[in-house]
Structures are given as structure tokens and as C-alpha cells.
Amino acid sequence: MITLRLAVRMAYSPDPRARWRQLSVIASLFLGTLMLLTAASVTAGVARSESDLRHRSPVWAAPDESPALVVRARAIIIDGAQVPVTWLEPGERPPAAGYTTVPPGLDRLPGPGEMVLSPGLLSQGIDASSLGMLPSRAGAGGGPAIGADGLATMSEPLIYARPREGQSLGREGALLAFRGYGPQGPAEPTGWTTQPPLIGWDIAPFGVVLLLLIPALVVLGLGGRALSPTRTARAATLMRLGVATNRVRWLLALETASLAVPGAVLAFITWWFAVSRTTTVPMVGTVLKQGTFALPLIVTLPVVLVAIGLASAASGMVRSATGRRGSRSVHWWELLPLVAGVLMVVSAWVGRFSGTLLGIGTMVLFVGVLLATPLLTALLGAAMSRHRAPRLWLAGRQLTFSPRNSARPAALLGALTLLGCSSVAVYGTLLDGRLDGTSNRNASIAYVDWVGAENTTWSEVIAAAASVDAAALPVHRDSDGQTSVNLADCAPSGASACSAIRSGRPLALLESSGIQTSERAGPVDTEAAVIIKDKPLADSTLYQALAPIAPALNIRELTPSTLAAPLYFKWLLVAWLVTTAALSLAVLREVGDRVMRLTWTDRYTMIRAGLRPVEIISISRASTLVPLASGAVLGFLAGCLVAFSGRTNRITVVDLPALTAYLLVAVLTSAATALFVLRLLRDRTP
After folding, report:
1. Which residues pair with 70 in a beta bridge?
2. I need a labelling partner for 449 at 20 to 30 A (CA). Which of 2, 195, 320, 572 fits?
3. Exposed (0-12), middle (13-18) or buried (19+): which is 353, by Cβ within 10 Å?
């Protein structure tokens, strides 16, 4: 009990020199614990999403079994995003006991010609009428929308449709046969989705482990080791008084736990209100179902205790309040990774495997910046040592005496700046939609196919295309399965569109898609057509024109168009921002500790040399800020090199204002932290 009371008093010492550790431990525990809880929440949310997909997945019929439900899975592009369209039709027999033909989220099957949409699509103003179908009241509760029971997220785009009276989904091709929807669904999800509604298991482990779990452990481990001159001096005094080392270590661990508990509890409260109950995620746009990120107390309590225990264990070491030891010297060969990374990134400009080479080169640059920063610090220290000003001379001697210890915060800052600048460059590319070589369209060329040729005449297809000022070309298919179109088949109503396709680029796009243009043509494919328009044509507009006559319509855009960024990219972007904030905190903690050690550890030597406290502060300022600035600039230059190299292959964009802003924020934040710690120690150095 005495040890606990002493630990609490040591933890909350009113001495200003203890403020840095108090702030560091509480902030680190708050962020680290919150990240651990969020990682657990995301994992649980992904598991719930996969469970929802299984729940809404029908069970396959046996090969010799008559299906109770037949399905064709299609898709449509709406506002740059692929939307799955599931076409349903009752099978040849009623479902067996325990099965149903009605998907979860619906009260009944849609009627002939009807369509049911998810709430996310309805909120965008997309309904059945805008897609050429009849509105349905088959949704949950007799409404027009799919219910939450049939969705993984409330914003998930999903459509169920049924052919009109007299139309069918055919009996061959991509027709899927099922027993129906069971109570649990199949072991492997067969519910159609163009991308995971939340984030798939193929991406989730990477995002959770690398972008949440590992940074959280780093923050917790380093945060618990934050330096406090008061704490160090008292621990050293206890040891000189004969207190056993193990007891002192136990005292230090309890002291850390005393500071860790408030930060961890605050993180739990924040997680409870801001994460576990949330239905929206900033910057992602996904609307979650209530309780997606919820966790039981039996999970959250061990997570909080692990966070506190990890920080306490990391802090349970006694550090001497005095003494000085230089680290091993730096060597020129440590520049080799930096040089190798530069050569690899530059080679990516013209290399055959430019994307892979750029990625590997960036990782090598990351290691190179970490290793090169101590050498750069030693060179700067040597230059400062030749200065006539005593303070700069002594600061330079400190840097050359222990370049690795002096450069540790700067190396972390440089590596973080490199990753930040590289990420900004890649993110800009994804925003611009350049990864797939997209460009502005001056014409529309689409390949459409459907089922039920016996109910769709070619004259109806021509008339539907003409209603949106487009031309319809019949697709010819020879005995080898090669598809081709004959430009002479252009309908008169589409004369302008047909002339547009001869203008050069649209014709090349048509041929590059695998569809040949020839005057000699084979038999006409009665369930496919090429639609041409001399102006951009939205898929939803074309869908509205063709859906009434062509069941199970599928549209494949042949003209390059900018698609919305994948949903998983938005999730990874948010995780990257959290990771950047966490690693930035680790860098700032290292900066603060560096200033604390310089000012506190060297005080006796400097005082005996005749220096005043204000001079000690000035020397510490120079020996801290110079390596930080050099490390950040080195990382910035490496990041700019990555941005310029990737630009030639449309992997990155070069946005110098954004890159410079990132550099300034990194440097100014680190410098402000150093000056803040010096402020705490000013007038307190004996």
C-alpha cells in the first residue's frame, strides 16, 4: 500500500519537470487504447458484415435437383460506382422445408417488371422508375426499400429485379440455380456485391494489423517510457538508500499505471460513445447498421488492461540521472540503402515493372532515410563544431559525440515525412482517377447484352437506342466466337453517332476492347448490341431505355470513364490518417525525451563548466532543432522523388503545395514540441 501511495504521488508530482511525462503517458494511453479498441471493433464489424452476406446468400441446388429459384447476377454503373443487380425468378418447384425464395430484407418477391432498391440508392434519388422498371412494395414492411436484414450496411448499393410479364431469365448461360434462402445461408457467401460493403477479409488483416495494431503497440510502449527528471532522480535516490532494484522497478511500473489509467479510461469512454455506437464513418460515407462496431465488456476490458500493462511494463526500468555515453560511430556505407533506393525509384521512370520497382524503392528509401540521418547529423555537428560561437560549438560537439542518439527523433521524423509525402502523391492519383488511364469522354460506346431473345426484337433495340439519341449496332459472332460489328449497320437515327466512331479514338477503343469492325460479318447475336453515342451517355439513362425490352440487362462501358475510388481505399485512408497521427505522437515523444535528456542529463557537467541555465537551454535548442530540420528535409526530398518518378506511369501526382504543407506541419509540430519541453525546463535547470 505504501508503494502504491508513493507511486501515485510520484506520478502526479507538481514539479513542472514532470509535466512532459504526465502529458506523454496520458496522451499515449488515450490514443493507443483507442486504437486497440477500434482495431477490435473493425474486426468485429468485418465479421458481422461477412455474416450478413452469408445470411442473404441463397443455397445452391444440386446438379440433379430442380431449382426453386433461378438468378442472374448483373451490374450497373451509377455515379461512377458499380451496383449489383440481382434478377430473380421462381423455379420449377416450390422451395423445400426451411427454405424460401424471398431474399432477406424483402417481404415477398418483386412482382413482374418490378424492382426493389436499397435505401442508399433511394437516398441518391435513384428509384425503379429512373431505371425503366416498375416500383415495388416488396421491401421490408411493405415499403419500396430493402430492409436492414438483407444489407451489410445501410448505404450498400443493391437492387433486386424481376423480368416483366412474358419475359424470362432464360434457361442456360450464366443462369444460377438455387434451393432458396436458408436460415443460416451457405458456408461461403454467394450474395452478390461488386465490392465488400464494409471491408473484405483480404484487406482487413492488413489494415487492422499494420495500420492500427502495430502503431498502437508502438505508441503504448514508447509512451510509457517518456522521461521525467523528477521520476528518474527519485528512483536513483531510492536505490542509493538501499531499496532493492526490483522494488524500484515495481514502483516505476505502478507510477506509470497511475498515469495510464486515466488515459485508458478516457479512451474507453470515447470509444463507447464515438466508435461503438457510430453509424457513420468520417470521409468514408458508409452508413453502418446500429451495433456494427459494438463489443462486449468481456472483450473491451482485457484490451484496456493490456494497454495499461504494456505501458507499465515498458516503463519499469531505472534510468540514471547522470552519466553520459556516446553511441557507436557512423559509417559512410550506411548511405548505401539511401543510394540504392534513389536508383530504384529513378529507374521506375523507364523500368518495365515500374509500379513494383517504385514500391520496393520506396521501402528501401524508408530504410535509407533512417540510416542516413545519423550520418547527416554527424556532418552537421562537425560543421557546427567549427563555428566560433561557443553555444553552437558545444551543440555541434554534442551531435558528433552521440550522432545516433541525437538523430533518433530526426530519423523517425524523416521516415514519417517520406511516407506522408508518398501517400499524398498516391492519394492524389486515386482522386483524379488516373490509375486506369481514364480521360474525359467525347463519345460513349457500350456493349450491352440481355436474355430472352425470343421476346426482344432488333427493331425494339434500335428504337430504344434512338430514344436517347444513340445508335445500335448488331453484334456478329462467327463460328470461332469472335465478335465484330459492321459500321454499315448503323441505324439512320444514329448517323451522327456512327460518324463519331469513325473519328479515330472511339474506333480504336472499340477495336481494343476485342470487338472487330468489319464489312464481312457472321450471324447476328440476338442478345447483344453495341450502343454508340457522339456525346457522353450515363449508364442509368441507357438502362432506363433498354430495361423494359431487355431483361437481365448488362452494360459494359467500352469508353474509358472515371470510376469512384474503391470503398476499401477510403477505409484505408482513414486508417492511414490515424496511423500518421499515432506515429507523429511517437515522434513528438522522442523529440521531447531528447530535449529532456540533453537539458537534464548534461546539467551537472555544463554547470561545472561555468554555463548558466539559459545557456544550457540554448545549446539544447540548437542540438535538437538542427537534426530535426535535416531529417525532415531528407524525407521530403525522398518523398518528392517518389512523386516525380511515379508520375510518368500515372501512379502518383506531383502537388508541391500539398507536399510542402505536409513538410511544414511536420517540422513546425516537432519544433513546437521541443520548445514546449524547453519551456517546462526553463528556470528549473540548477
Report:
1. 89, 177
2. 195
3. exposed
